[in-house]
Amino acid sequence: MTTSLPNTQPADPVDPRLAECSATPDVRPALFSPAEYDRRLQAVRRTMDHQGLGALVVTDPANIFYLTGYDAWSFYTPQMLFVPDEGDMLLFLREMDANGAFRTSWLPPDQIVGYPERYVHRPHLHPFDWVAFALRRRGRIAPAARGCVGLEMDSHFFSPKGYRSLVNALPEWTLVDSFELVNWARAVKSDAEIQYMRTAARVTTAAMQAAIDAIEPGAPQNRVAAQIARAQAEGVGDAWGDFPAIVPMLPTGASADTPHLTWSDRVLREGDAVVVELAGAHRRYHVPLARTVMLGPPSDELLRLEAAVAAGLQAVLDTVAEGVPVQELASAWNWSLAEHGLEKHSRLGYSIGIGYPPDWGERTISIRTEDESVLAENMTFHVICGMWMTGYGYEVSESVRVTRTGVETFTSFPRALIRK
Amino acid sequence: MTTSLPNTQPADPVDPRLAECSATPDVRPALFSPAEYDRRLQAVRRTMDHQGLGALVVTDPANIFYLTGYDAWSFYTPQMLFVPDEGDMLLFLREMDANGAFRTSWLPPDQIVGYPERYVHRPHLHPFDWVAFALRRRGRIAPAARGCVGLEMDSHFFSPKGYRSLVNALPEWTLVDSFELVNWARAVKSDAEIQYMRTAARVTTAAMQAAIDAIEPGAPQNRVAAQIARAQAEGVGDAWGDFPAIVPMLPTGASADTPHLTWSDRVLREGDAVVVELAGAHRRYHVPLARTVMLGPPSDELLRLEAAVAAGLQAVLDTVAEGVPVQELASAWNWSLAEHGLEKHSRLGYSIGIGYPPDWGERTISIRTEDESVLAENMTFHVICGMWMTGYGYEVSESVRVTRTGVETFTSFPRALIRK
Fold it and tell me: Of A140, A139, A151, which Cα lies nearest the Cα of A48?
């Protein structure tokens, strides 16, 4: 398999315009080499074979991006990348989005199929009714059924209605959960991916600095969010900012005891601790970062928390290296925190990389004692020490790359409570 | 049913911290009156009764917000609002987010239940396994099974895995698709909701102006996006900006033939037509708007498109009034466009209001000839005349409110091609 440049080959009958586009500009260059896309597909197919899958149905936009480069805000209507164990992949998406796949993915037009607009948001139809028939019409049903067909049963944009469409329309298929198969293939990054993450980290640093500059008594939260959002898109020089998968979080004052509240016009006051959690993104690769900004003198309990978290985070970073079980990171954290009389119930971090809303995590490795993964070089994590206490909270995080002997942090922001 | 202020009643055993929070600040005031929340629930229950449902399982974050006020970026892990035909609703969400529900929803603590962290992102568990047992333990299974139990089978954040958890754990329940039941209840806005949308429209106007100011030859797309994002959060005075459900879209030049591409660092040039599609949001209510900005003299074909779209949009707005079938709007558009020798395959617009990523549409009424809805006062739509031609495109839209005799547009931006 090689990546193909747009050509003049006739496209699927559904969207004849594709063939006419071949001479137009504004086709994005591929983000990765043909060899890298080929390696990704081969790795996915090896796991498919291992799990007894004759085909895989991919619906997670991050996984579709990983395998094809397709990148657009089109995932609010159903999309499917059909990955057979051999032969061409097929990308099914809404008719009006087929051109977008032509412009951003490496797939040749005959592997991009638009489903008709009349299947969008209809109570008694689902686009996958049409897609199932399109697969049948192309003779792609039987070959795929050499084994089971894997489905991403917990993908955000694959609904039970879409699932039942496939169950009803493809009775020959034995459907099984693929268990984040492609997400797992994403866990170890290539050098090219690491480069994109280092570029994203420059956006992250600029956005965190914009946050710290904007946080002051009298500023409403939404004005702080505005400066972060500006910096996240603006980036720095050639490190241009892509949209982050999650908006900036600014848990403030007493409400910093809960992590996922978004901003309002709540005015910052002297005495507030403001938690800032954000990511810089570049070409869909994310580097998240959290810091806590204190307006005025911190309370004794916040200072104790700062010291405990600093020690715990350092203990975790000191533990990271290729070959170390992930649960040892969690243990290092738990032991260190226990020495300060504290504990944290929620996971300490998660694997990161490509992100689409609503999440920049990969939904695979979580840093917690139940996780059985082992660290490998070029795995990347957001290690987030979020302590949500009663009526206050504190967060410090680092995004890191596992190296053969230790750890690389993507950013170099001071790791303490930031006093203003 | 009345809304309850936070009290000192013991919360669910899972999250004892809730009870301690009662005296803390940073609890958001309810966005709507207790009477309005009550009317919403009663309307939903009337439809449930009509559709033979003894209970409804709500997973769409916009629907949860509509019924409870709960607002946080927590929908990347499973959430469920259980709505029985009588008795208290129960909101299930991740343990760390229970405090957020306490801080933003009107629900009393005993109706907020956090599921344990160990159910998050585990391959062989799903939070709804736990939720199903929690419902059983509370004796909420049998009463709900007086009829069928409705599920939002096409909700973005309800996965097939979650669906199968409920199927397996609640065999007493007869599950049926609720067909966007709550979404339909949202179609006609209250006066209070219209006021939030008018406030959102002020954010929209500021964001569109920021876009037009930033679009110039030599500016990279991401710098334009940065200025839009800043204005979207900053807002204007008390019209503060909430995060929009979709990032700004900037289809540019030849790639304006496809609607959903996001920005890159592509530099704008003399001769580019730049489509801007964005929304202002205020307290989760959205007012979208699209315009096209031309750098330099427009081509003859773009001018013809401008004239055709202007006439078509005017024909649609002249048709809007309470009692008019939605398909007449589509017909008015189609006839007008046909007079210019054009046609548009995709829908002309959709119902709007509350939005969470990835969509600000309500997924109910679409303006197209297949739609059988009839316009009612205080329905609100994004009428989007998006023409994606071969190698270029043009968009103009209006967000509108249906009145008894006609139409109110939320913004008053000049409706022509904007020349710079």
Answer: A151
Of residues B58, B157, B75, B127, the one with CA closest to residue A158: B157
Please report the ipTM that was assigned to this predicted complex.
Answer: 0.93
Q: How far apart are CA B59 and CA B163, in angstroms?
A: 11
Indicate yes or no: CB of A345 within 8 angstroms of CB of B252. no
pLDDT tens, residue order, chain B (420 aa): 333 333 333 333 333 333 333 334 577 788 999 999 999 999 999 999 999 999 999 999 999 999 999 999 999 999 999 999 999 999 999 999 998 898 899 999 999 999 999 999 988 899 999 999 999 999 999 877 778 999 999 999 999 999 999 999 999 999 999 999 999 999 999 999 999 999 999 999 999 999 999 999 999 999 999 999 999 999 999 999 999 999 999 999 888 888 899 999 999 999 999 999 999 999 999 999 999 999 999 999 999 999 999 999 999 999 999 999 999 999 999 999 999 999 888 899 999 999 999 999 999 999 999 999 999 999 999 999 988 888 888 999 999 999 999 999 999 999 999 999
Chain A partners within 8 Å of B266 (Cβ): 26
CATH number of A191-419: 3.90.230.10
**Amino acid identity of B263?**
W
Domains in chain A: boundaries: 17-185, 191-419
Q: Which amino acid is at B107?
A: L
Question: Cα A256 vs. chain centroid, distance in angstroms?
Answer: 24
Q: What is the torsion angle, in degrees rounded to the nearest 10, for the CA atoms of residue B247, residue B253, residue B258 and residue B262?
A: -20
d(CA A354, CA A66): 8
Q: Is the minimum CB–CB distance between B290 and chain A shorter than 8 Å?
A: no
Q: Nearest to residue A66, comparing CAs of A176, A152, A142, A130?
A: A152
Q: Which two tokens stand for residue A264?
A: 């309002």
Phi then psi for A352, rounded to 5 degrees?
-130, 170
The kind and range of the H/E element at A409 are strand A407-409
Partner-chain residue, chosen from B97, B102, B350, that has the shortest CB–CB distance to A260 = B97
Most distant CA pair in chain A: distance in Å? Answer: 70
**What residues in A contact B261, CB-CB < 8 Å?**
71-73, 100, 103-104
Alpha-carbon distance of A83 to A41, in angstroms, equals: 9
Q: Do residues A99 and A21 touch, judged by C-beta distance below 8 A?
A: yes
Is residue A175 within 8 A of residue A254, CB to CB? The reply is: no
- The pairing of strands B393-402 and B407-409 is antiparallel
Distance (Å) from the alpha carbon of A8 to chain B's nearest alpha carbon: 14
Place of tokens 């974050």: B61
For the CA atoms of B66, B69, B71, B76, the dihedral, rounded to the nearest 10 degrees, stands at -50
Alpha-carbon Rg for chain A in angstroms = 23
CA distances from A218 to A263, A266, A278, B301 (A): 15, 9, 22, 51
Residue B394 carries which DSSP code? E
Q: Tell me the C-alpha distance between A149 and B143, whole Å.
A: 38
SS (H, E, C) A316-374: HHHHCCCCCEHHHHHHHHHHHHHHCCCCCCCCCEEEEEEEECCEEEEEEEECCCCCCCE
Amino acid in position B226: A
**For residues B381 and B362, is the Cβ–Cβ distance under 8 A?**
no
pTM of the model: 0.93
CATH, range A17-185: 3.40.350.10
- Chain A residues near residue B163 by CB distance under 8 angstroms: 160, 163
Count other C-beta atoms under 10 Å from residue B416's C-beta: 14
What span, in angstroms and rounded, lies between the C-alpha atoms of B28 and B6? Answer: 11
- Interacting residues of B237 by C-beta distance below 8 A, sequence separation 6+: B202
Question: Residue A109: CB partners within 8 Å, gap ≥ 6?
Answer: A6, A7, A9, A10, A11, A12, A18, A19, A102
